[in-house]
Write a structure and sequence with these properties.
binds S-adenosylmethionine; alpha/beta; Rossmann fold; 6 helices
């Protein structure tokens, strides 16, 4: 469902010191845009930043970039981040608006990324739209250009067919599946699982959360 327009989102983002207005200009230079040199993680399709804000607050020793294609949604993400950081601008988050399908225009091999989160991306159920999926092998090939050697991708979805297809995309693109579960909340996964907005939404409806970790080899 499309989010209602937020007239305040663009004005607030334009004043936000951690919102990158022209991500193409940052290509190859993302690491230099953070105050501290530390590992870089990306969330693709970060939505309202529910997961990103908590993750960044719990991991101040990691730099994060949240990307979404909607300014209205990023405006809400900015407010959620400010809330999580109690009104202080975080030093370890950058937000930017871009269509991840074209991520090769904003990242290159100098932007060494250690981890990518893809949580509840659009399942694009029609076969002719599959190439728009953020886990499609066409996308995975692009991510490999800036994902560190041995870097990992965390992928979660509620959608069975996107999940089984994505497993194949990862394997055929040379990723090793290190962990996989079809019901994360009833699994033995031991890491602290921070919930995203859609993870809360779907699990409250009793839909099992599918989750995998794939490593670039
Ligand atoms: C279903 S929401 C999931 C949000 C969040 N990851 C979560 O788990 O709650 C999908 C988000 O991805 C964004 N999105 C979809 N396709 C995208 C693309 N090609 N590039 C960037 N963002 C995209 C949408 O605007 C939306 O905010």
């Amino acid at each position: 469902m499309r989010m209602r327009r937020k007239p305040w989102a663009r004005p607030e983002l334009s004043k936000c010191e951690y919102y990158i207005k022209n991500p193409c200009d940052a290509k190859g230079k993302w690491l230099n845009l953070f105050e501290k040199a530390q590992p870089l993680h990306l969330e693709l399709g970060c939505g309202k930043g529910v997961f990103l804000s908590r993750l960044a607050r719990c991991n101040l020793d990691v730099n994060f970039i949240g990307i979404d294609m909607s300014d209205d949604i990023l405006g809400v993400a900015r407010r959620n981040i400010e809330k999580e950081f109690e009104g202080i601008s975080p030093k370890n988050i950058l937000l930017t608006r871009y269509n991840v399908e074209y991520c090769d225009k904003i990242f290159d091999s100098n932007d060494i990324v250690d981890r990518i989160y893809i949580y509840f991306c659009n399942p694009w159920p029609r076969p002719r739209h599959h190439k728009k999926r953020l886990t499609h092998f066409r996308q995975l090939d692009k991510y490999k250009n800036f994902l560190n050697k041995n870097g990992i991708i965390h992928f979660k979805t509620d959608d069975d067919s996107l999940f089984s297809d994505s497993k194949k995309y990862f394997e055929s693109s040379g990723f090793k599946i290190e962990y996989i579960t079809h019901d994360l909340h009833n699994s033995e996964y031991e890491e602290n699982n921070l919930l995203s907005e859609h993870e809360i939404l779907f699990s409250n409806q009793g839909i099992p959360i599918k989750f995998l970790i794939a490593r670039a080899v």
